[in-house]
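Re: the multi-chain job from yesterday

Posting the exact lines I submitted so nobody has to dig through the queue logs.
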Amino acid sequence: MLDTAPAFRFVEERLGIDVRTADAATELESLGVDSLSLLELVFEIEEQFGVRLDERTAPPRNCGELAALIERLAAARA
Amino acid sequence: MTPRRVAVTGIGLVTPLGTTAPATFAALLEGRSGVRLHAPPDAPGALAVPAGVCDGFDAAATLGRVKAATLDRYSQLGVVAGLEAWRDAGLAEAPQEDREDWGVAWGTGVGGVLTYERSYRDLYIAGRERLAPLTVVQAMNNACAGYLAIALGLGGACSTYSVACASSAIAIGDAFRRIRAGTSPVVLAGGSEAPLAYGVIRAWLALQILAPGDAQSAPLACKPFQRERAGLVLAEGGAALVLEDWSRAQARGARIYAELAGVGESCDHANLVRPSVAGQARAIRAALADARLTPAELDYVNAHATGTRDGDTVEIAALRSALGARAAAVAVSATKSALGHPLGAAGALEAALTALALHHDAIPPTLGEATQLDPECAGVAHVAGRALRGARPRAALSNSFAFGGSNAVLALRTRA
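And the result, structure tokens for all chains:
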């Protein structure tokens, strides 16, 4: 599995919150992430791991789902 | 029926001299330059040119990192300037139901060129086959205007003009007509530009009209009206004005910087890059006529003056042609000497500075020594070297003359 720390650091810089320790139910929208910025955010994470999400994957809605997505992308590349 | 009058009630600026309108105007009056030697990042070879860079600008500080990351730099500069103008006008608390017929009129020359350049680098050099999903919406020329309308809940017309260096002057003209016609009582008008991409700089170098300079000479590399002038200096920036129906502004007790009294437009119909005295003079006359001003009432002109050999002399000749004997008494300055030329944002930036000059009774100078003025640019009252305070200007013009031959002149009057 790839190191997930840089991706989590990137997300924390962007959102001002560590999604690993934040309340998993915290909605990304409440952190200012609208549909466009979510596209951009996920793209950046995919690029970091050099993988691409399956198009059928539902986009993350909250901190817990975003953290899980990062773990999954890192595992997919490993 | 008397036509509706238009008030300037809010101003926002992000420039190489400051990240707010007051900071920019104060630095300009002090005679400081915002130009420095700039080396575009990611350039494949060594290149450095004098340029106006908004060094202190931090988009994330105002917009948050999430939003800032969805916008090209030209939009970031424009949105931050637009939000400042909005706060400055005291409209932040205006109810949403009032805003449904308020609009945006914006100008940009090269729009999201930094996004295009990054994308081309990814595709052609890095060999990537996938671009960032927001490439289209970041690069499009109306992204900035659209974002401002969303952020402020403005439901009226939202238009963007791309008319090279006259873009945002023409946008202000459109806003002016909307208010005068009663279509919108409030329009946020302005422009923004972030043209300091490697490819853009190379393209302007190819045209052979960029002013040369090294680290030491860069701050005064743009020398409008001077004998030694050798070209223009590219710059980035954002400028916004809140334009408002005069009666509405008065009724709510708004602070009015100046009246936007008239707009004149023309086309040289002669040459894509070489300016024409007759074409420019037509726009100047049209602006005065639209504002019902006579040359005798005119006290200041913020010149387009980019510092090129031909452009500056043609503009002075056009002023003399349109103003006649009055020209010799009219104060003229070129703020591009301190701020550089932000292309499509220049018209709004200079209209804002003109409104501030009328409001504060302080005319910013053309940087450089008065003794260096070119005799071929004589015939007006140059404000050179230091600001002119206490002249009590009654009315002023802000000139914008574009490649393509499009000319736009805005006439402003001191609040009466």
